[in-house]
Amino acid sequence: SNRALSDIYINCTNNFEKVPELFLASAAVARLHNDVRHEAIAYESLAKNYVRMNQSDKAIENYRKALAIKPGSDLAIGILAEIGLAYSVIGDYGNSITFYDSSLRMEDKDIAMRRSSDISDTTMNIGLKLNMADIYLIIPNLDKALATYKDALLLSESIGRKRFIVLSLNGIGKSYRALKQYSEALKYFQRGLDECSSDNSGTGTIRVDRPGVMRQCSPFNSFQDEVVLLNEMAKTYLDSGVYTVAIKYADTALSLADRQNFITMLSKTNATYGNAYLKLNRPDLAIFYLKKALFFAEQKSSLTDKKDAWLGLYNAYELTGHAESALD
Fold first, then answer.
1. Number of H helices, E strands in the chain
2. Where are the alpha helices (DSSP H) in 53-181?
3. Which candidate, 235, 194, 249, places its Cα nearest to that of 217?
4. Per-residue pLDDT tens for 131-190?
5. pTM, 2 dp
6. pLDDT tens-digit profile of 259-280?
7. CB 93, CB 139: distance < 8 Å
8. Among the listed residues 46, 38, 39, 41, the one whose alpha carbon sits nearest the alpha carbon of residue 21
9. CA 99 to CA 60: how far, in whole Å?
């Protein structure tokens, strides 16, 4: 009953302060009855509540309490992964990798003991590898990022999960771009777009037939992935110095994001558009799009996107000789 009440309070923002005592009461009752599993679940649920409240330190503390009572590998695998995610949120990438890796190793050991695995095991493995690869890309450790994304791709293809296939291809493309291997990056982004367009359900799309040429193609069922991939291709052309082509891709990505009111990508695509015009020495258009990027970033409260937009605006205003105007 305490867990049921706490779940109700979680959905009521005015009663967040009552949630911890209810989960702790639930843990105490479970401990009284030597019910290790439900005691661990109570601490894990409390930790997730702190995640919702953006209190990562308290979340990690309670995840660790859940682990300390040794709840069994099936719970521990997920809790280790959740701790890894909590550390990544606060930028502690070393601990994040450590806990993701511990989760992965425990899962492998659990599968070996069972002498069997199912699709949920493979899905968990893919998710862990993608999260680890994302961190390697940030650190950066590009060789490890590339290898881990490729591992995730092979597993994703083995179970035919298109969403994971696209995420893996996107990560491989970003890794190659970071390595300045732009043609390889474009190849993998294109493969991602091909995956998106191979399904015959959903809205129409525009795909890339070859670098620099876009055309209408069959519909697909994941416009968000397509917007992300088109924007990544725009950024790749931007980094490689092909600014006019970068603008074409950014324009396509922006049109699709605007059509579906995809706020997160409206910030990112406007920023790409603005930075392309900045490279073309058009500060007027750069400022126009970067201001839009900042507007959408503020709607999503994305610190990274806001920082990128502000930096672009400063550079654009600096071209006009009025860098101080970026603060207006």
1. 15, 2
2. 56-68, 73-89, 93-114, 119-138, 142-159, 162-178
3. 194
4. 999 999 999 999 999 999 999 999 999 999 888 999 999 999 999 999 999 999 999 999
5. 0.82
6. 888 888 999 999 999 999 999 9
7. yes
8. 46
9. 11
